[in-house]
Amino acid sequence: MDLQQTTTRITEQTALIERLRQEIGKVLVGQEKLVDRMLIALIGGGHILLEGVPGLAKTTAIRTLSQALGLQFQRISFTPDLLPADVVGTLIYSQKDGSFLPKKGPVFTNLLLADEINRAPAKVQSALLEAMQEQRVTLGDTTYPLPAPFLVMATQNPIEQKGTYPLPEAQIDRFMMKCVVTYPSRDDERRIMNRFTHPLAGEVAPVMDAAQIQTLRGVLDQVYCDEKVGEYILDIVQATREPSAFGLAPLANQIEMGASPRATLWLHVGARAHALLHGRAYATPQDVKEIARDVLRHRILLTYEAEAENVNADQVVETILNTIPVP
User: Fold this and answer.
1) Mean pLDDT in the chain?
2) Gap between the Cα atoms of 69 and 23, Å rounded
3) Residue 217 lies in a domain
4) pLDDT tens for residues 186-202?
């Protein structure tokens, strides 16, 4: 399919995407970037890790998205006493015929909110590994596919560390993006205050369904990414592993472990999805830059020297983006 045909297909979807934004905007105020990231993950088949203090509408965001998409939504509050069976389900013994019947857990949904995921121990966090990667769950000897589309949005509080369990590298790497949610601006907070003084004018109406999301994924497959943009993505990821080879020798003492190959894949998918959401049939280096921080910040492991110097992953990514030549 040529670029003109893909552009035509994207134009047909633009009005639908705009309606979706408007419906979400009935409830969510001033979180356009977060909405974009959720749509990129949904279209690209990824998952999102959200970090932010309480009260920033993280739960409201995914619930509103599920209403606007007409998809099933489940929420799991991760606590220290949670068990893996509470997430994926288990087998129940039937006295009637002596068999074991599957009891599916809340993970069998379209949109799953893993609330404060770092409050549950590793054995519970690992219950999501198969679901997030293979889109399926094994109960006993049988493997059950999860509904499509399937999106996990996990939240964690960056401030309170007491009683929490840091996510293992294998778990955190399965998230397409880690988004940091900050406080709203003064104008946005005024709009929030005024909006919620009175009941909402109308309910969020479904404007898209699973079939239309699948159509968008088909369009995404046709979005063009030039070889030079692909090389740019490879340079960025390689620079996190071998900074000295890219003229970034000072970062060599700050990065303990660079980004995994998943970073390359998600940068490629995310850049094309970002282009699609903005009505273009081709990805540009700017699309890569727009999502690079979200894709890379949780995949770069910093050294003690970097932490002692108050250097964070965002600053490392920013340095890389400012140094690697743009094609």
Assistant:
1) 87
2) 10
3) no
4) 998 888 888 777 666 56
